[in-house]
């Protein structure tokens, strides 16, 4: 029996320090168009959905939202990117992270979280993806944060 397009391929991935805190990085080459990982979590009740303070909520359908907070959900470390190398595909009420292009070892995985999340959570503090904050600007910000930390 042929393997489904939606079967995670078991790539070697690592959680590391990233611009936005922690991020998920490829430890090996990932080809274009494959399932990298599945975003998993507990299905919330409607009441929990509206009262949850989790930042790992994923609306799968209008009637199903999952909370990916559990640390077994390694996909929760994938950060937003305005120029993503991954995209989300929802199939049979499950969430899959698919590669949009070939991903090189050491490259951080990212997908676009969508306008609503971006406007609510990222825009107010500034997006730190490579497209929005080039490496030289990121290095300046890191140095400024280190100086601030030393003064405190």
Write the layout of secondary structure elements.
Elements: E1 13-18, E2 21-26, E3 35-39, E4 42-43, H1 46-51, E5 57-61, E6 64-67, E7 79-80, E8 86-91, E9 94-99, E10 110-111, H2 115-122, H3 135-151
Parallel strand pairs: 7-10
Antiparallel strand pairs: 1-2, 3-9, 4-6, 5-6, 8-9
Low-confidence stretches: none
Task: Count the E strands.
Answer: 10
CATH-derived architecture: Beta Complex
The outline comes out as globular
Q: CATH fold name, please? A: Beta-clip-like
Q: Describe the biggest sheet?
A: 3 strands, antiparallel
Q: What is the domain tally?
A: 1
The first-level CATH class name: Mainly Beta
Characterization of this structure:
The chain has 152 residues and is of the alpha+beta class. Helices cover 20% and strands 29% of the residues. The longest helix is centred in the C-terminal third of the chain and has 17 residues, at 135-151.
Task: Briefly summarize what is shown.
The chain has helices at 46-51, 115-122, 135-151; strands at 13-18, 21-26, 35-39, 42-43, 57-61, 64-67, 79-80, 86-91, 94-99, 110-111. With 152 residues, it is an alpha+beta fold. Strand 8 (86-91) and strand 9 (94-99) form a beta hairpin.
Keywords:
152 residues; three-stranded antiparallel sheet; 29% strand; Beta-clip-like
